[in-house]
Amino acid sequence: MKKLCSLSDAVASIPSGSHVALSGFAITRCAMAFAREVIRQGIKKLTISQCVGAMDTDLLVGGGAVERLVYGGGTLDRFGRLACVNAGIENGSLSAEEYSSLSIAFRYLAGSLGIPFIPIRSLSGSSLLSRLQEQSQPHAAFINDPFTGDRWLVLKPLLPDVAVVQVQTCDEEGNAWIMGPKWDSPEQAKASSRTIVIAEHVVPTEMIRREPERCVIPNLLVSHVVELPFGAHPTSLYREYDYDADEIRRYVEAAKKPDSWKTYLDKYVYGVKDHWEYLELVGGLRHLRSIQADPILGY
Amino acid sequence: MDFTPSELMAVSGARELKDGQIVAVGIGLPMVASFLAKKSHAPNMIILFELGVIDPEPIHTGVGLADPRVWYRAKTHSSFVDILGTVLHRGRVDVGFLGGIEADPFGNLNTTMVGDPKGKFRHMVGSGGANDIASCAKKTIIIMRQEKRKFRQTISFVTSPGFVNGGDSRKKAGLQGGPSRVITDKAIYGFDPETKAMMLVSIHPGSTLRDVTSTLGFEPIVPPHVPFTEPPTSEQLRLIREVIDPERMYME
Questions:
Q1: Considering only CB atoms, which chain B residues are within 8 Å of A127?
Q2: Complex ipTM, two decimals?
């Protein structure tokens, strides 16, 4: 089956109400073009999971696509808070299950291994845990180690319907390389029923075969492959392009008030037909060249 | 010699680090403290960032851990499961740095929300790797500015546990380690070995005991004799100002 497709076809494969794991971390390697297309297609009631909440999630929440968030907290680093996520939590419109980075990573890891639960040292003695235990069907519980009798906190696996992972390079089958730190992307892909890979470059499989040790996501996990330049814009993609500080600042300013936020969505999401029009809107080739990464520095 | 409170905080943090230690670090003052230690008395110390970075040597300052500037020249790029799992959770991290919006006398930290959790509140950052570091590191160092509204008898949310309710309650919660120092812009604190409540260790030069106690929302334990904190050396200041943070990105 042919996996290489357009962004809109890949997004259309996700029904409303799905659980989507997203690859962003704060302001880097975020599935931004994906988030914009999800909002344009009117997909709703998503559950989003992510170790550290990032700009892709914040945009999806601000675009009204998210019902529930499972995450370990997050920010836009120095640029500001996750304004849409925080507003949703504060006014009760977003149901948020809050953990720590490692507890989400372990829940994905348990999912990736097909095991029923995973013991963890984190969360004990915190309000994060007491909050999680207040839920009607808690995903955290205590058991006794059958070998030592010690008491352990255990977490249920996370099993997303689809992982959406932004990468630098893959082939048409979806064999994907991730350059730089990988945070939770490998476990997200392996825990999910299937993965959509969004790549800056799609290369011949022969290139993947020449350096098989670089492959982080093997093709057997992948349902769709999308080739999209600057798909993480305005966040960064290591060794490809830097974050676009001015555009992130524009986003943060807009997200402060409902009126300016609506204007932002109208311009950057609904005002463009697709990712290509978006790239023209933010300045086209001349501007995008200016944030291209230095090959030595990687940013 | 002239130095700012932030510079003294960074230097005090660096002094807590020993050569050969494995240290989990976040952005801001902890990063300055760690790089300062590494560039002076602890060249073999190993710096970790939670998202999967070991031993970077940045030449530019970054806006956060997500900024590729702070990953530059790392020896390893891996993952959360690798750093927070196989290094931190496995018990290999000697020191972790933590900060907070609120702290209580037992070193419990809140980075999640301010206000009333059941009523009107403002949601902030949450945990990230902070709860994991607070739970799994052999010890932690808390670095934050000292104000009455930040250091409170009771905090509205415990994101990262310190000594929980004091005494042996941290152990009873199944946790090892715990906070060893609280470094503020006024003073340095430790914790009483029995009660596990915050105890004054030294007062920064230029501050009085009254400055210290009047900017805390609770009474710390004050031993009969409290020395002044050792000021930074000119070499430490040079490293901070010229090498580690020339743009004053982390120092405020």
A1: 112, 117, 157-159
A2: 0.97
